[in-house]
Amino acid sequence: MHADRPIWVRYDLAAIGKSVSPRDFSARPPTLWRYSELLPLSDPAHQISLGEGMTPLLPARRLGAYCGLSDLWIKDESQLPTGSFKSRGMALAVSMAHRFGLHRLAAPTAGNAGGALSAYGARAGMEVFVFMPEDTPTSIQAECQSYGAKVYLVQGLITDCGRIVRQGCDAMDWFDVATLKEPYRIEGKKTMGLELAEQFDWRLPDVILYPTGGGTGLIGMWKAFNELRELGWLRSDKMPRMISVQSDGCAPIVRAFKNRERFCEPWQNPDSTAWGIRVPAAVGDFMILDAIRDSNGCAVAVSESAIAAAAQLAGRLVGVSFCPESAACVLAAQKLLADGLIKPDERIVIFNTGSALKYLSGPQVDLPCLPADKPIDYAAL
Amino acid sequence: MHADRPIWVRYDLAAIGKSVSPRDFSARPPTLWRYSELLPLSDPAHQISLGEGMTPLLPARRLGAYCGLSDLWIKDESQLPTGSFKSRGMALAVSMAHRFGLHRLAAPTAGNAGGALSAYGARAGMEVFVFMPEDTPTSIQAECQSYGAKVYLVQGLITDCGRIVRQGCDAMDWFDVATLKEPYRIEGKKTMGLELAEQFDWRLPDVILYPTGGGTGLIGMWKAFNELRELGWLRSDKMPRMISVQSDGCAPIVRAFKNRERFCEPWQNPDSTAWGIRVPAAVGDFMILDAIRDSNGCAVAVSESAIAAAAQLAGRLVGVSFCPESAACVLAAQKLLADGLIKPDERIVIFNTGSALKYLSGPQVDLPCLPADKPIDYAAL
Question: Between chains, do A122 and B55 touch, taking CB under 8 Å as contact?
Answer without folding.
Answer: no
